[in-house]
Amino acid sequence: MKIKFLLDENMPFALLEFLTNRGYDTIHLKKIEKVGIKNGEVYKVAEKDNSWIITRDSDFKNLHKFIEHNIRGILVFTVTDTRTQNILNLMKQFLEFHSEKLTSKHLIIIEDKEVKIYESK
Predict the structure, then answer these.
(1) Contact present, 100 and 69 (Cβ < 8 Å)
(2) Nearest to 73 by CA among 56, 95, 50
(3) What pLDDT shows up at residue 71?
(4) pLDDT above 80 for 1
(5) Residue 35, pLDDT score
(6) pLDDT at 77 > cutoff 80
């Protein structure tokens, strides 16, 4: 199954290009004119496209909401350095060391010094 990503509006466009260049189907909420939608609507878009959500919105760390929605998974960046280059570097590291986690449903929280991975039960 091809891995798809839905980038929340708080993610840089450079991440869209980065992931697309690596062969992932990637869309950005701003590119599909979904700016300002509520988190529940973001889940619906991800469910419809069977995609992962990538965001910096800490509301998406809610394990209960993650489990109740039929999405591929969520990657939440909770980092102090939110510059684009840091996000790209962290995503590259994640893909190098944890890309196998993208094949099943996980809530993944990427922090400054660690990656926390929760499975859907």
Answers:
(1) no
(2) 50
(3) 93
(4) no
(5) 85
(6) yes
State the residue range of the domain holding 93: 4-119
- The CB density around residue 81, as the number of other CB atoms within 10 Å, is 10
Tokens of 13: 């466009």
The number of distinct structural domains making up the chain is 1
Order across the sheet with 106-111: list the strands. 25-28, 4-7, 52-55, 73-78, 106-111, 115-119
In whole angstroms, how large is the CA radius of gyration of the chain? 13
CATH number of the domain at 37, please: 3.40.50
Average pLDDT of the segment spanning 49-66: 94
Residues in the chain: 121
Cα–Cα distance, 76 to 57 (Å, whole number):
7
Stated pTM of the model:
0.95
